[in-house]
Structure formats: C-alpha cells, structure tokens
From TrEMBL:
Location(s) in or outside the cell: Cell membrane; Membrane
InterPro entries: Leu-rich_rpt (IPR001611), Leu-rich_rpt_typical-subtyp (IPR003591), LRR_dom_sf (IPR032675), LRR_N_plant-typ (IPR013210), LRR_R13L4/SHOC2-like (IPR055414)
Pfam families the record matches: LRR_1, LRR_14, LRR_8, LRRNT_2
This protein's name: MDIS1-interacting receptor like kinase 2
Keyword annotations of the record: Cell membrane, Glycoprotein, Kinase, Leucine-rich repeat, Membrane, Receptor, Repeat, Signal, Transferase, Transmembrane, Transmembrane helix
Domain of life: Eukaryota
Gene: MIK2_86
Length: 679
C-alpha cells in the first residue's frame, strides 16, 4: 500500500513543481507586463526588482507575478495577482494606465503596490479597469488629490478599513458610505480629532462601535446606519457636544435604556435616527431637550408605555414611530402606524404636514372636519382602524391629496360625487368598508389617474415630502411601505416610489349599479379592483383603454353579457379575474388575454366558453349541412331531373321506334338492331 501513496506524492510534486511552473501566461499578458517594465525602467534605469521579467522565461516565474492554476486542456496560466510592494515605480499616473484594459487589467484579483513611494494622483482609468479586483493594498505611498469614485464601484472589491486610517489626523470629512467595507471599525478612528463628518453607512461593518468614539470632539455628523454593528451604544457619545446628526439605524445593536438615555446630553441634534436599534422601555426622555430636532425615527424597536405628551408638543417636522408597542391617545406628528393608539383621529397638526400615517391603530369615531386645515397634505393613511360613519364631503377639500387609504374600517353610505375635486389623487383605497350606492361618475375628473406625470409635473410627486429640508436629510428618511391588495395578496409599495403607482380599490363594499364607462378614462391606472360588490350590467368596452393596467379584478359581482374584446388591448395585464358573475359568450382571444389561463379567473360563470378554459363555444362546433342558397333563377341542370328523366325518356324512345315500324318484320335483316357485326 506504500507504493501507490509514494507515487501519488511524486505525481503531485512533479505536477506542481515541474510541469505547472513551465506553463506561462498568454503571450498578450506577457507583452503587457514587459511594456510596463519598459516604461518603468525608462524612468528608473537602476531598478533591479524587475530583473527576472525577461521575454525568454515564463512570466509565471517572474518576481511579484502570480498566475492561476492551469485549467484542463490549457497550455497557459492567466496572471491573477501582482505584488509590487517595496518597488520604487514613481508616478502611478504614468505607469499603471499602460496596462491595456482589454488584456491585463480585467484579470487581476490581487494588486499590491504598498510601500512603493508612489506619488501623484490615483488614476481614474487605471483602477476603473480592474473589474475582477478582490484585494487592493496601497499603503505607505505618497498619493495626493482625491480618491476616484470608480475605485469604490469595482464589483468584487472587498474593502477593509485599516488601522492606519488613524494617522490621518488632519482629516475633516470621511465619507465611505455604500462601499462594501467589511470587518470592524478601526479603533484608531478615534484619533481623528479634527473630523467633522464620518459616514460609514450602508456597508457590512461588524463588531462593536469603538468605545472611544466620543473622542471625536468636532464631529457634527455621525452616520453608521445600515451595517451589522453589534453591542451597545457607547456611553462616550455623550461627550459629542457638536453632534447634530446621528444615524445608527438598522444594525444589530442591543442598546439598553441606560445607553440610549445618556448618549447625547450635551449636543443639539437636528436629525436622530435609531430605527431598528433594539431600543426598549419608554421613549427616551432626553429627546425632550432637543429643541432643534426636525427628524426623529424610533421605528421598529420595542418601545412601550404611553405616548409622551412632551413629544406631542415638540415642533418636530418628521416623527416616525411605527412598529412599537406604544399606547394612549395622540394629539400631534407624522407616522405612528402599527401601534395601539386609540381615541378619535387626531387633528392638531401643523398646516404644513404633508404625510399623516396613522394606520394599524385603534382610532375610532368619524373622520374629523379639522383635517381640511391640513392644506399641504399629500398622503393620508388611516387604514386598519375602527373609523365609522359616512364618507364625508369635506374630504374633497384637501385638494393636495395624492394618496388616500381608508381600507379596513367601518365607513358607510355613498361615495360623494365631490370626490372628483381630488384631482391630484393617484392612489385611492376604500376597500373593506360598508359603502353603498353607485360608483361616482365624477371619477372621470381624477386627473392624477388619467395620465402618469412626467416629473417635474404640474402637481408634485410623493418624493417631494422633504422639500423644506436639506438633501442629506430627505434622502435618508424611511417611511413605512404602503400596504395594498395587489395580485390577490397584500404587498408593500415603497414610500419613495409611490409616484410610480396609480391604484383604485373599491372592493369588498356594497356598491351597486353599473360600472360607469368613465372608468376607461383613468389611463394611468395600474390596478383596478371593484370585486366583491353588487355591481350589475355589462363590462364596459372602455376598460380596454386602460393601457397601463396590470391587474383587473371584477369578480364576485352580478355582471352579465360577454367579456368585451377590447380587453385584448391591455398589453400590461398580468392578473384578470371575472369569476362569480353571470357572464356568457366567448372569452376574447389575443394579446395578454391568451396568457390568462387560470380557470379560477372565470369560475362560476356558466355561460363562458373559450380556449382559456378549454370549453368549446357553440359557434366553433361543426354545423349540420344546409342546402345551398340560390337566387330565383331556375337551374339549368339538376341531378334529380337526371334520375327521373332518363328512364322516362328511354321508354318514350322505344315507343316512338315501335310506332314508326323500326321493328317491323318486312324490314331487311341488315336493318335490325344488333350488338355486333360478323366479320
């Protein structure tokens, strides 16, 4: 058994140390490396570190060059790494860009040019071509200028913040957000005493926040959100007296109440985001000292207790508290959805309020008329509450509304025709209430649903909710998704993309009468759901004009007649349901209707037929033979006449011959009728 093992080891040795090194890199790569050497030596003729780079030898044996293992049936090995540390190569701008981007640069996985006394600016094109780069070491050089943004868009680069970053003691701003940096935040970062802004958000940083981060005495903006940071919020943060923006949201922190209270007793905050930071207990009362605060996000934590009155009295522009366990009544702010707040719908809001999100609570009673004072309101969300009474006419006075969500409440009565005054409305959800009467004809005036706006438009989109604040603030505001019924399930629409959606949902009410033709004018609609009502009459052919429609649900009504062929024009349609009606006739063929093959879409319509449900329509069956239709002229030929005339004519001919004496005995024999003649 020893011999096979010895042979195996010998083969491995022979392959890796004898055969494999003999395989060189492709000729084009060798030429690129030699060109790099030549250009370098033209500047530094005494450089000996590249002496092994000779044309006659395998480039995979050159100093600092690393090649891949040879793939099967290959005679070459690609260059995947260059280790050029301790190499005095001069200006990188003059040399690195000599690598042809189509030959060598895209192959590098590793590039080490540390400790090389390189000076000048970092080249944009040189590093922008290193598309497969995984590791880059540029330490201990003499670079100046800025870091090219292309360097941070290399898709495979795995960045690690080095401890040496603490040597940049004169640094005032460090923004490395969204750059895929990993590992821990180096503790040396606390040495940057002149740093005013530190943005490490949207990376994959882990471990704890450095305990000495409070030594950044000049810091005004600290952004560490959207990472994988663990541990607590360091108590040293209370020393950050210049801090006005703190964002720690969406990490894996387990901050206790002591830390959360003590972090900022000396500073004056403008923005505070602690979303999903595992905060527990009551809303931290130190927030009441922040008189300049205009943005507060404490959502997705485990805050409990009664909603504090002092927070209601603060003049904070944006307060976001959904997904906690707060109770009590509310007198003023913006997004308190998904709590357990009760009482009447609050109205003591600033007239400049643009978003009022109170869904998923226990508000009851009717809709208050004071809502009309919110003259800038664009988004009103009151879904999933206990709101009752009739749908009030005064709501049509909030002309700025773009999103109006009242689903899952106890509203009753008619939908007023005055709803047509809400000309900016893009999303209207009144589903799951007890509304009665007809669908208003005034929907034809909902201009926000007639044509999708080309931004900037005559009316603002939902993305302008931050118009009064700086770009840095408004680009990082996170609001809850808008939950709607989409394709038979509840889905969330991103709050920052609501200007892309146009929805009308009146399902699960007690609406009656016919579907108005005017709905066909709402050409921007992506979803139309009027299912689970008592609608009757025919499906309007005008619905085929809803050119952007993706989902159409007319099920569970009392609709009759046929499905209009115009629906084949709906090229965006992905969901179509007319089940549980009284429809008849053939299901239209063509366009997206050919893809609506789910038999459940048509169930419980006994008169429907068509290829989609594999039911043959009567007109498609082979019809019985029918006599040909003719004009009043008599035909000149008839097979029936042939059948009768032939025997009659034959008999008459015999009679004529007999009467004329053809068979008379006195005739000569050669005049007799014969069948053959003798030869």
């Amino acid at each position: 058994m020893a011999k096979p093992s010895l042979l195996l080891h010998f083969f491995i040795f022979f392959f890796f140390f004898m055969i494999l090194p003999c395989l060189s890199c492709p000729e084009c790569q060798k030429q690129a490396l030699l060109q790099f050497k030549s250009s370098t030596l033209s500047i530094y003729s005494s450089l000996h570190a590249l002496d092994s780079w000779e044309f006659s030898s395998s480039c995979c044996l050159w100093d600092g060059v690393i090649c891949s293992t040879s793939p099967p049936n290959s005679t070459s090995r690609a260059v995947i790494a260059l280790h050029l540390s301790d190499l005095f190569i001069g200006s990188l701008l003059e040399n690195l860009e000599l690598f042809p981007s189509s030959i060598l640069a895209p192959l590098f996985f590793v590039l080490d040019i540390s400790s090389s006394s390189i000076y000048g600016q970092i080249p944009v094109l040189g590093f922008g071509n290193l598309s497969k780069l995984v590791y880059l070491d540029m330490r201990w050089n003499r670079f100046n200028g800025s870091i090219p943004p292309q360097l941070f868009h290399l898709p495979n680069l795995r960045g690690v913040l080095p401890e040496e970053i603490g040597n940049l003691t004169k640094l005032q701003q460090l923004s490395l957000g969204s750059d895929e940096f990993s590992n821990a935040i180096p503790s040396s970062i606390s040495h940057l005493k002149e740093l005013e802004k530190l943005d490490l958000g949207d990376n994959v940083l882990s471990m704890e926040i450095p305990t000495d981060i409070g030594n950044l005495s000049n810091i005004s903006t600290l952004i560490l959100g959207n990472n994988n940071l663990t541990g607590g919020i360091p108590a040293s943060m209370r020393k950050l007296s210049e801090l006005n923006t703190l964002k720690l949201e969406n990490n894996l922190l387990n901050a206790d109440r002591r830390n959360s209270i003590m972090i900022v007793p000396r500073c004056i905050l403008v923005t505070l985001s602690l979303r999903s930071c595992a905060l527990r207990g009551e809303v931290p009362d130190w927030i009441s000292t922040q008189k300049r605060l205009n943005f507060l996000d404490l959502s997705e934590n485990d805050l409990q207790g009664t909603f504090p009155q002092w927070l209601a009295e603060m003049e904070v522009a944006y307060i976001i508290l959904p997904d906690n366990r707060l109770i009590g009544t509310v007198e003023s702010y913006v997004d308190f959805s998904s709590n357990q707040l009760s009482g009447e719908v609050p109205t003591a809001f600033s007239q400049y309020t643009e978003i009022l999100a109170l869904g998923g609570n226990k508000f009851s009673g009717g809709l208050p008329s004071n809502l009309t004072k919110l003259s800038n309101l664009k988004r009103l969300e009151l879904q999933d509450n206990y709101i009752s009474g009739e749908f009030p006419n005064f709501l049509s006075q909030i002309f700025t509304l773009q999103v109006f969500n009242l689903q899952n409440n106890f509203l009753e009565g008619l939908i007023p025709e005055t709803i047509s005054n809400l000309s900016n409305l893009q999303i209207l959800d009144l589903s799951n209430n007890n509304l009665t009467g007809k669908i208003p004809l005034g929907f034809v005036h909902l201009m926000g649903m007639i044509e999708a706006p080309n931004l900037p438009s005559s009316y603002t989109s939902i993305s302008t909710i931050y118009i009064l604040y700086s770009e840095d603030i408004r680009s990082n505001i996170v609001l809850n998704d808008l939950i709607v019924n989409w394709n038979k399930s509840k889905q969330g629409l991103s709050s920052h993309d609501l200007d892309m959606y146009f929805l009308l949902d009146l399902s699960s009410n007690q609406l009656s009468g016919e579907i108005p033709d005017s709905l066909g004018t709402l050409k921007a609609l992506k979803l139309l759901n009027i299912s689970h009502n008592k609608l009757s009459g025919k499906i309007p052919a005008s619905l085929g004009d809803l050119e952007n429609l993706e989902s159409l649900d007319l099920s569970h009504n009392q609709l009759s007649g046929s499905i209009p062929p115009t629906l084949t024009k709906l090229q965006q349609l992905t969901t179509f349901d007319v089940s549980n009606n009284q429809l008849t006739g053939q299901i239209p063929i063509g366009g997206q209707m050919n893809t609506m093959l789910d038999p459940n879409y048509y169930a419980n319509n006994s008169g429907l037929c068509g290829a989609q449900i594999q039911v043959t329509c009567p007109e498609e069956q082979s019809p019985p033979s029918k006599p040909q239709e003719h004009d009043n002229k008599e035909p000149w030929f008839s097979w029936g006449g042939v059948g009768i005339g032939y025997p009659v004519g034959f008999v008459l001919q015999i009679v004529i011959i007999f009467l004329t004496g053809y068979f008379s005995p006195s005739q000569p024999s050669n005049n007799r009728l014969c069948c053959s003649h003798p030869h």
